[in-house]
């Protein structure tokens, strides 16, 4: 009898363990469909795959996918296709053909993958190519060359930016880029990013743009209806447009408060920026019911305008409440700045707190506020070459070429009217 009870107890324990195991397997996260990096690092097991090993579509080459990761010397790799939680294809198939990480490829790396055999990659299996993430130089606000080693390429980051982002390939983005946290953007010489719906910066988040020695790295954000139209529909109706770099206009669906939130500082230290807002500034906020950020230009080439010259400044704000008092400032210490709009620099609703020009070449249609605003802008020109062209468009114009009854104009440099 005791033996029978003991045997029954053992059987119950085994059944209990089997049930727990089945339950755990049932609750295990199943990898989403896609292409993954597999190898010795995850024990060649599909159950161990994570989002960190999932390849993303390249924005530079439609035939490629990319993954940014960290590799160790001697690590063995392949790529697998996962469908419905199971591996369906290995790249390459077979045995004794794993990619083995060499010493010169260890560390931070970018892995390029094609799901068809590529003759140029035959020496390493024909499906993947591994490149180390080399340090990237940039010129800081003081004109000193610095080096960045911890970054994400814009190709890999896609539409979601945070931290250090490097444009090291020509890429094109057809929806609006979201700055999720403070962003430091490096535009490498000779490389271009076409951001057809611009860069959304709000809610205290800052953006700093750096170039390299030649300032030929380019950010194009020319908001045209063919591109912003689908985005416009996806987030519901947006009033007062979108800045090329900065905020969106009022939209209750996009933002429950009805208004976007003021960005953190926006600083341009280098590169070439060609910016055109949709009824909003090239850089700044879409309307004056939120405060303007502090905008500083230390270097580079900035061309900033708006699609409707009567709707916004080239740099500053768009239309809105003329009684809303703004505290942000625009400071130009160097570089080349070319702007156009109702007022090229500053606000067209009620006025940035101040505009300070300490150096550089500035060409604009006006500095300050428009003539129906109730708030004056302090304008200080300490240096540089400033050329103001009187706008030819109809509608509200600056009360004077340099603003509407500005609180102060200190002019010590060359100003051509």
Question: What can you tell me about this protein's structure?
Answer:
The strands form five sheets. The protein has a 15-stranded parallel sheet that branches. The protein has a nine-stranded parallel sheet with strand order 13-15-18-21-24-27-30-32-34, with no helix packed on it. It is mostly beta strands. The chain has helices at residues 2-27, 154-157, 225-234; strands spanning 34-39, 56-57, 65-71, 76-83, 86-91, 99-100, 107-113, 128-132, 136-139, 145-148, 152-153, 160-167, 171-173, 177-187, 192-195, 199-200, 207-210, 218-222, 245-246, 266-268, 272-277, 283-285, 295-297, 301-306, 315-317, 329-332, 336-339, 345-346, 354-357, 361-364, 378-381, 385-388, 408-411, 414-416. A hairpin with a 2-residue loop joins strand 4 and strand 5. The model is unreliable at 1-28, 393-401 and 403-414 (pLDDT under 50). It has three helices and 34 strands. The protein is elongated.
